[in-house]
Write a structure and sequence with these properties.
By secondary structure, the protein is mostly helical. It has one domain: 434 Repressor (Amino-terminal Domain) (Orthogonal Bundle), CATH 1.10.260. Helices cover 51% and strands 0% of the residues. It contains five helices and no strands. Helix 1 packs across helix 5, helix 2 crosses helix 3 and helix 2 packs across helix 4. The mean pLDDT is 83.
């Protein structure tokens, strides 16, 4: 997945949170942030503190890679999000499954 905007990250966070069956308050508590902060991130608000965003992604089990993905990895496979699908669902173009 290539995330190029804060909204790309926010949509990915929302999708992954839903996959894990967490509501916003539960996830915010796990991360140690307010629900309002999480709502802002999910809505793509720029300016969120990078350290908190990284903590959020870690809690969700989403790795952040800079540069090329390594060819071989130890451990579980990375979570790959189809960003086009996430955006289409957020826009209501796809039916909820």
């Amino acid at each position: 997945m290539r995330a190029r905007t804060p909204l790309d990250i926010g949509l990915t966070v929302r999708e992954r949170r839903r996959e894990l069956g967490l509501n916003q308050a539960e996830l915010a508590a796990k991360v140690g942030v307010s629900r309002q902060w999480l709502v802002a991130v999910e809505n793509g608000k720029p300016g969120a503190e990078l350290g908190l965003v990284l903590r959020l992604l870690n809690v969700l089990g989403v790795d952040v890679w800079l540069g090329e993905l390594p060819a071989a990895q130890d451990g579980p496979p990375p979570i790959v999000m189809d960003l086009d699908r996430v955006i289409a669902r957020a826009r209501g173009s796809l039916d909820e499954e």
